[in-house]
Amino acid sequence: MPEKNEIAKLLAEAHRAMEPAINRIVRLVADREDEVREPVKLLEVNPATSPSGIFPIAFTADPPRVPYPSVVVEVTEAEFEQITTGTLPLPSGWRLGDTLYPATT
After folding, report:
1. Backbone phi, then psi, for 15, in 5-degree steps?
2. What is the tally of structural domains in the chain?
3. Between the chain's N and C termini, which has fewer beta carbons within 10 Å?
């Protein structure tokens, strides 16, 4: 089975292709990341979205290409800044991981 990092990169590329306004994608990680049932989580910074706070949207696995469930959280640039400063908390146990797609500005 592919590693979650590989799947996260695959999903990030697909989401960027579908939504070119996205200017940053960061992997969200949890303490239980090594568990198969823990979803691959992406934080997508999209200046074209409306501010709505942290609203995770869950997707089921889609084997064989995406063997893990996934979660996407879409935020504005201002909300991303709030996340990085800790004023907008992520769900309990989640934290920012690697940047999969860097900011364009």
Report:
1. -70, -40
2. 1
3. C
User: pLDDT tens digits, the chain, 105 residues: what are they?
Assistant: 689 999 999 999 999 999 999 999 999 999 999 898 999 999 999 999 999 999 999 999 999 999 999 999 999 999 999 999 999 999 999 999 999 998 655
Residue 41 CB-half CA count within 13 A: 24
Q: What CATH code is carried by the domain that includes residue 32?
A: 3.30.460
Q: Which two tokens stand for residue 67?
A: 């063997």
Structural domain boundaries enclosing 56: 4-101
